[in-house]
Design brief:
Blueprint: E1 11-12, E2 17-18, E3 21-24, E4 29-30, E5 35-36, E6 39-42, E7 47-48, E8 53-56, E9 69-72, E10 77-78, E11 83-85, E12 92-95, E13 100-101, E14 106-107, E15 112-113, E16 118-119, E17 124-125, E18 130-131, E19 136-137, E20 142-143, E21 148-149, E22 154-155, E23 160-161, E24 171-174, E25 179-183, H1 185-190, H2 195-211
């Protein structure tokens, strides 16, 4: 288990493999055949159901042999066969609080997934993507590298988000390539979002887009 710090209140199945520089909080469930590795910090009260792969080296032609950092927050649910890759050199892959990843969802190196995001079955997130808070990505959606997904977005199942798309907050998006369908009234009502919240998050979205060079 290397330099692992595993806490006293965690359930770790006997078939799970934990190696590397691991810092594990409290009240986590690590299910059968999960693999936790690398420079990895996990918060409290997360559930890794089974066959989860967390912190493995990035799929990157120049940095595949480097161990960047991976941080996972609190109260997350990670279903069967999900994958979260470590960042490239000196980078960070970060998963926020209350994130749900359903089976076979994939988050590549250097991604930021903010609080309250849901990644449904088979969602694929390319490297350096930033998914803003409380967004919901439907089954099989695929997001191009360096993209930014605005807060309270609903991305329809099978949706393809290419490099030049602009996914503004609070909208519903569908299709290949992606296009706006309508305002995500359900999401905005669910999180009690008013027009001022939406204006502020749209401004933050535009700043993130600039940072990503889009």
């Amino acid at each position: 288990m290397g330099g692992a710090s595993l806490g006293m209140s965690n359930f770790i199945h006997h078939s799970a493999v934990i190696e590397g520089d691991i810092e594990l909080g409290e009240y986590n469930y690590i299910g059968p055949f999960c693999y936790l590795t690398g420079n990895l910090t996990i918060g409290d009260n997360n559930r890794f159901i089974s066959h989860c792969s967390i912190g493995t080296r990035p799929e990157h032609t120049e940095h595949w042999d480097k161990d960047g950092r991976t941080i996972i927050g609190d109260d997350g649910t990670f279903r069967e066969h999900i994958s979260i890759h470590a960042a490239t050199t000196d980078g960070l892959t970060r998963i926020g609080n209350c994130v749900i990843m359903l089976n076979k969802a994939y988050v590549a190196h250097d991604c930021i997934i903010e609080d309250g995001v849901t990644l449904s079955c088979g969602v694929k997130i390319g490297g350096h993507v930033h998914v803003m808070r409380d967004s919901n990505l439907g089954m099989g959606a695929a997001i191009h590298q360096y993209q930014v997904i605005g807060s309270w977005s609903m991305i329809g199942m099978g949706c393809i988000v290419p490099k030049k798309a602009r996914i503004y907050p609070g909208q519903t998006w569908v299709g290949n390539p992606v296009q706006r369908l309508k305002t995500n009234e359900h999401g905005l009502d669910r999180f009690n979002i008013d027009e001022y919240d939406l204006i502020e998050e749209t401004a933050r979205y535009k700043e993130l887009v600039k940072l990503h060079g889009l």
